[in-house]
UniProtKB/TrEMBL annotation:
<dbReference type="Pfam" id="PF01379">
    <property type="entry name" value="Porphobil_deam"/>
</dbReference>
<dbReference type="InterPro" id="IPR022419">
    <property type="entry name" value="Porphobilin_deaminase_cofac_BS"/>
</dbReference>
<dbReference type="Pfam" id="PF03900">
    <property type="entry name" value="Porphobil_deamC"/>
</dbReference>
<protein>
    <recommendedName>
        <fullName>hydroxymethylbilane synthase</fullName>
        <ecNumber>2.5.1.61</ecNumber>
    </recommendedName>
</protein>
<dbReference type="GO" id="GO:0005737">
    <property type="term" value="C:cytoplasm"/>
</dbReference>
<feature type="domain" description="Porphobilinogen deaminase N-terminal">
    <location>
        <begin position="20"/>
        <end position="231"/>
    </location>
</feature>
<comment type="similarity">
    <text>Belongs to the HMBS family.</text>
</comment>
<dbReference type="InterPro" id="IPR036803">
    <property type="entry name" value="Porphobilinogen_deaminase_C_sf"/>
</dbReference>
<dbReference type="InterPro" id="IPR022417">
    <property type="entry name" value="Porphobilin_deaminase_N"/>
</dbReference>
<dbReference type="GO" id="GO:0004418">
    <property type="term" value="F:hydroxymethylbilane synthase activity"/>
</dbReference>
<dbReference type="InterPro" id="IPR000860">
    <property type="entry name" value="HemC"/>
</dbReference>
<dbReference type="GO" id="GO:0006782">
    <property type="term" value="P:protoporphyrinogen IX biosynthetic process"/>
</dbReference>
<feature type="domain" description="Porphobilinogen deaminase C-terminal">
    <location>
        <begin position="244"/>
        <end position="312"/>
    </location>
</feature>
<keyword id="KW-0808">Transferase</keyword>
<comment type="pathway">
    <text>Porphyrin-containing compound metabolism; protoporphyrin-IX biosynthesis; coproporphyrinogen-III from 5-aminolevulinate: step 2/4.</text>
</comment>
<keyword id="KW-0627">Porphyrin biosynthesis</keyword>
<dbReference type="InterPro" id="IPR022418">
    <property type="entry name" value="Porphobilinogen_deaminase_C"/>
</dbReference>
Amino acid sequence: FFLLFFWSRQDGNGKVSRVIRIGTRKSQLARIQTDSVAAKLKELYPDVHLEIVGMSTTGDKILDTALSKIGEKSLFTKELENALERNEVDLVVHSLKDLPTTLPPGFTIGAVLKRESPHDAVVLHPKHAGKSLATLPESSVIGTSSLRRAAQLKKRFPHLEFRDIRGNLNTRLKKLDDKDDFAAIILAAAGLRRMGWENRISQVLEPEDCMYAVGQGALAVEVRARDADILEMVSVLHDPDTVLRCIAERAFLRHLEGGCSVPVAVHTEVKDSQLYLTGAVYSLDGADTGKISGRAQDRAERLGVDLANLLLSKGAKEILTVARQLNDAR
């Protein structure tokens, strides 16, 4: 058996309430996302006192280098997981797309919440208001820190140029608005909506233009695997359809041995109790090759693995190898 120790505090009436500490990145978006999870937990467990602990991660500190060149798989999660391991926090809220597909020993995903839109969005420079990627002038520069986005959009919109842009949402929008370096930037629609900036979305990219990142738009709660009561507490946040979609997506990426630095893209949907997964691996020039039953989760995982094997048999491994080599050389 095991014993769990938690902070406790007394309210004004002398009543002792349990304190659960939630780890998060310090960015405004991360805090908004974590606050939304905390609000749901508080609604379900009013007697629990929640404390939010903000931390800076490697990905937050290195802002002058493209993500694909850093080579670290846990850019936005390692420091949070270290705090979880040291019992400094009891659970951590992540954007699921930042979370590596294989977690360190002793950690598990306790919940995946209902997904916001997983699609990418175009934010235009104010001088291009009313345009779209298709109607921007020849050689317009589009900012994105994602190889996945650039690889797909180069193929779809060959008249455009793509350059790296780093920083949190606030920083990237300021870089767009204050200078003439970029005609537009590509961001996750979910982040813009959670920040209350939906009015900045000029165009939502459908899967035929740009499939999204594995786990994009979903929030995950990571916990220590041994903490049965914390697992029980957060499991009620699970959204069944989101869980199955993300299991398939993450199995697909894991079997390809990919990460956020390789151009792997997906599109999933649940229709009539059937789970559909579309996935692709792109070369850097844009060419391409509740309670949930364990059975359903296993089938979702199998779907991801089967699709990954199909793409590997059609040359995806070589594309991924070249992509990593080109990243190293850049």
